[in-house]
Structures
1.
Amino acid sequence: MDINERARQTIRSLPKTVHGGQAWKLDNIEDYSHNLNPFGAPTFLDEIVASAVSSVWHYPDDASLGFRTAVANEFDVEPENVIAGAGSSDIIRMFPNTFLEPGDRVLMFTPSFAEYTQQCKICGVGIEYIRLREENDYRIDIEELSEKLTSDVKALYICNPNNPTGRVEPRDKILSIVDECEEKGIMVFLDETLLELVDGYKDVSCASYVGEYTNLLVAGSLTKSFAIPGIRIGFGISNVDTIDQLNKVRMTWNIGAIEQAVGERLIAEHMDYVHDAATLLRKEADNMFDELKDMGFPVNAPCDGFFYFCDISSLGMDAGTFVSKMKSHGYMVRDCSSFGPDFTNCVRFCVKDNETNAGFLAAMRKVLE
C-alpha cells in the first residue's frame, strides 16, 4: 500500500504551513519578515539558562506551576486559569483536539495566522473564512460577523493584533463579540501572541476577563515579546473548566525544565524589557509611516503595532518580485502569497530600531526607483 494511502484522509493532501523569519539561514540579510522584539533576545538570558541546567537530570514539573504562576500574576488571574504550551502553537493544536469534532464548522478571518487552518483541518473540521478588506482597513466588520455567527458554528478564531495585517481591535469590540458568541454557544479562540509588543497592551488584552466567560480562551507566548523563537514557551488562559479539558490533550512534560525556568524568570522579573520595546516600536512605526508615504509606497495608515501589511499592486509588481528585489539589497520581507490567492500582491514587514529602519527604508527607495 502506498504510504499516502496509509495516512488519514484529512491530511493526505494537506500542505505544510509557511512562516516568515527564515532569513537567519542566509548570509548578510536583515530579516524584516518576522515580527520580534527589535532589542533581540535579552543579554541576561544566558544566566537564566545556565542556572536552570542543573535541573535537567530529572523530569520537568508536568504542571509547570512556577511558570503558570508567573503568567497568572502578570495577567491578574489564578494559576488554575493557565495552561503551559510549547509556544502558542501548542495551544493552537490543543484547542481543536479538545473541543472540536470531525465535521464541525468554525469561522476564521482571512488573511490570518495559518496554523489555525492547519490544526483544524488535521482534526477534520470545516472552515468558513471571513475576508478582511482593505477598504475597511483590514478590521473586523461586526455586522458581517454577526450574520455568520449561526447555530452550527462551534468556534470563532480571532488574532489580535491580526497576523499578517497588524490591526489591533479594542478590548470593548472583542468582548462584545465574545458576549454574542457566549449567547449562541460558540467558543472564541483569541490569539494575543503579538499583543505585548503593542504600546499600552494591558488596556487591550482580554486575558484578565476569562473568568467572566465560559467560552473564551486566550493564547499567548514569549516568542515575540522576548525575541526567543528558538525557546518554545507559550500559554493559554481561560476559565478553570476549559483548562481542565485542555490538560487532557496536553502532551505530558510538554515544557522542559529549562523552558519553564526561562519563562518564569522573564515574566516575573523582566517585563520592563518588553514594555521598553513596545514604546520604541510605537515611535518608530509612526516614523516609518511618514517615510513610506514620502517615497510613494502604498501604505494607507500607520500600523497599530509593529508591522505593516501592504498591497503593492500599484507598484506594478507582485509580492514575489518585490521580495526578490529587497533581498538583493540585503533585506528580507514576507511574501504574503502563502495566505491565499487573494494576497499575491501583498507583503508584510516589521518595524525595528531607528538605525536599522533607516537602512531598510533606503533599500526600499532604491527598489521603488
2.
Amino acid sequence: MEDLSNYEKLKEDANNYYNSIGKVRSPVFNEDVGFNAEGFNHIVYKTARTERERPSQILRFKLLRLARKLVEVSTTYQEYEETLKEFTVKRHKKKVNKSQPVKYWGIIAIIDGRKIKVILRKIGENGKLHFWSIVPAWTTNKYRDIKFYTTMKGNPEED
C-alpha cells in the first residue's frame, strides 16, 4: 500500500510541475497541446463532485513527466472517439446549456519502462487541443477496430 501521508506535498509538487508545462508541441497533430487547469482537475476528480481514490491520484501525479514526454515524441495516436456533450455557457448574462462535439484521442506507449495512455481532448470545432488525462495500466480491447469512429475502451470522460 502506498504511503498517503505526503499526499498534499505530492499534489502541490505535481500541480507546480503541471502549471510549468503550459503547452507542448505534438508531432502527431502538428499543433500545441495545452496543459490547462481542466486537465489537472481531471487527474484529481473523476467527475465534478467525485474525487479519485488517493493512490490513483498519486500514481497519475508521478506519471505527469511521462505524459508530457509522450505528447512531445509520439507521431501516431491509437484511439479516437467523438461524442456530443452538453456544456453550461453564458449567453447574454444567462447560463444556458449548449451541445458541442467533443473529440478524444488516446496516445498509447511504453515509455521509460511504463505502459501509459495519454488522452487529449478538443471541445467544439474551433476548440484548442488540451491534455485531458493519463491512464496507467489499462486493458486493451481486442475488438477495438470493429467501430471505426469509436476505438476507445472505457469512458474517456472519466478515465
3.
Amino acid sequence: MAHNLELDQNGQASMFFTGDVPWHQLGRRLQKPATAAEAMEAARLDYKVVKRPLKAIIHARHFANVPNAFATVRTDTNVVLGVVGSRYQPVQNKDAFTFFDPLVDRDEAIYHTAGVLGRGEKIWLLAKLPDYIRVGPKGDPIEKFVLLYNSHDGSSHIRVKMTPIRVVCNNTLTAALSGADAEVRIKHTASAGDKLREAHKVLELTNQLYKELDYIFNRMALRKVTPTQLVEYCKTLVPDNAEAESNTRTENMRNHIISLHDDTKEASMHKGNLFGVFNAVTEYVDHYSNQKDPSKQLKSMWFGGSGEQLKRRAYQLAESML
C-alpha cells in the first residue's frame, strides 16, 4: 500500500511513531513518549514555511508580480508547496506541537505519531489520551486520540478533531456527536495563532465527549440487528443512483460491507449488533476502499475525504437506530 510520506534520498520517511510498527513499515520508532522537540526532530517537522510574491515571466529577464498571489515555500529545501492569496498566513509546525504542550506537560497525553506528506505541504500530529473506551461485555478496547492536521499549500484549514481507533482492527471510528462540536477548523489568517490557542476548548471538552461516545458505542453494542436490517442499513447508507447506467459498484460496496460484518475475525465480537455494523463500514473504508489509489488513504480516513464522509453518515445512521 502506498503512503505518500515524504522520503529522503536514502528512502527514510519523515515520520515518527511509538508502539507498534505502522502498516507501511516506515518511520522512526521512539521507545518512550517524546517531548515536542524530540517529536519534531524525529518526524523531520522542524522546518519553516514562508510566503513569497508570485511572479510571472513576461519575457527573458523580465518578471512581473501576480496580484494577490503568493507561493508558500519550505525554507530548508526551497520547494514551492502551493499558491495562496494575500490573506493567507503560514502556521508553523512548531505551533501545531505547541497546541498539545499543556496536555503533554500534565501527562494527560503523549505524542504518538507525526509525519510529513508529499513534499511537506501537509503534516499531521496524533496525540494519545490515557485509558480506553471499552465496548460490549468483552470490553473491546478503543484508544482515544486527538488529531491535528495542517496544510501549507492552501488546500485546507487547520483541523483538530477527536479520533477514536479500535485496537483490534485499527479502524478509525469517525463520529459526529450531536450537540457537541468534536472538531475545530481554523483558517490560515493573521489570527490563526490566537484561534489555535482557543481550540484548547476542544481539548478541555475531550474527556466529556469521549464519555458520551463511550455511552453511545455501548448502546450500539446492545442493539441487535437482523440480517434484513443489515441489508436495509447498507441500502440507506449507499443508495442506488437513479441516473447511473449501472449500480454494480454500489451493490459491490454494500455486499463487501455485509461480508465484513458476517465473516471477518475483527467483526466477530460484535456480529449481529449495531456497533458491529458500524465497524464493518469503518473496516471497508480504512482497509479496502482505496486499493486503486492507496496514496489517498490518509485523506480518505481522516481529512474529509469520501471515506470519512461515509463513516460519518454510517455513525449518524446507526445512532438514529438506537
